[in-house]
Design a protein that fits this description.
Strand 6 and strand 7 form a beta hairpin. The strands form two sheets. Strands 1-2-5-4-3 form a five-stranded mixed β-sheet, sandwiched between helices. The chain has a two-stranded antiparallel ribbon with strand order 6-7. The chain contains 13 helices and seven strands. By secondary structure, it is α+β, with helices and mostly antiparallel strands. The chain starts with 10 loop residues before the first helix and ends with a helix. Helix 5 packs across helix 7 and helix 9 runs antiparallel to helix 10.
Length: about 280
């Protein structure tokens, strides 16, 4: 429809209709999903209703593969994968020619609880919402507030606890219970401005880089330290020197050539060595 002369679908309409479109696909294949962010947020937590620019949903980890297959069968194409999407490997982004972008989350950044257990915690307390032509589920009010605070640690929102916990009058002890159950204490501390209280935590350095900035080398080392297992740490370390081919493709607007990938690899390696040398000189 984008290519049809004179036809344009407003972004808020796209997002509002993309949610039920995705929900219907999930229902068809029996995939459990929890809608998060944007217009899925409980009105009690939104001073102003915002649709956002895309759709986000948390998917039961064991159902990710089946939903991925179903999305592809309905003309959704992968824009960025779990591997390259973020330091957390938490989401895979899809694009549809009519509905725009969808972020399929297999876990939530900052949550250290095993993903399937964390999803069960949120699924058990879920609340139902009405979408145009479909019924869907979101996390509970308190869990939504918790996730919004955790998400704010990545985008630098001012006083997130005040905005999403105190202002709507949500019980702090209940939210703290969600934080503890999800094992999300470091991310919550980072969002709350008291990250130093988590200095001994394995994910402390990762959240310090995310919230205060740092070199790419520092970020990768922090990711290795924050890995939940030795195998995952080795996998992250092995991927550190590799080129993000997906990002190159987005930058070029086409598939990069082998020579362009090689040039990016050597530039990445050179930058890492330079950052390491500068770090030793401090």
């Amino acid at each position: 429809m984008d290519d049809a002369p004179g036809v344009s679908i407003p972004l808020d309409v796209r997002v509002a209709l993309a949610r039920p479109a995705i929900q219907v696909i999930a229902d068809d294949v029996g995939a459990d999903i929890l809608h998060i962010k944007g217009d899925a947020v409980d009105p009690r937590l939104r001073a102003v209703a915002m649709t956002g620019t895309d759709v986000d949903a948390l998917v039961r980890p064991s159902h990710v593969a089946r939903l991925d297959t179903a999305l592809r069968a309905h003309e959704w194409t992968v824009y960025s994968t779990f591997t390259y999407g973020s330091p957390f490997g938490h989401a895979q982004t899809y694009h549809h020619p009519m509905w725009g972008y969808f972020d399929l989350h297999r876990l939530f950044p900052g949550v250290r609880r095993e993903p399937s257990v964390a999803f069960d915690l949120m699924w058990t307390g879920r609340q139902e919402v009405e979408l145009p032509g479909a019924r869907a589920s979101t996390p509970s009010l308190e869990m939504q507030a918790t996730l919004l605070v955790l998400n704010s640690a990545r985008n630098g929102a001012d006083d997130p606890v005040g905005r999403w916990v105190d202002d709507p009058g949500i019980d702090r002890e209940t939210v703290q219970g969600c934080v503890d159950a999800l094992q999300a204490r470091t991310a919550f501390a980072a969002a709350s401005g008291c990250l130093e209280s988590r200095r001994g935590a394995s994910d402390y350095r990762l959240w310090k880089v995310i919230t205060e900035g740092g070199t790419r080398s520092q970020e990768w080392w922090a990711r290795v330290r924050a890995a939940p297992s030795l195998n995952e740490a080795v996998r992250i370390a092995a991927r550190a020197p590799l080129v993000n081919v997906e990002q190159l493709e987005h930058d070029f607007g086409r598939r990069p050539s082998r020579s362009e990938i090689a040039a990016a690899f050597f530039a990445r390696t050179s930058r890492a060595l330079r950052e390491a040398k500068e770090g030793r000189g401090k």
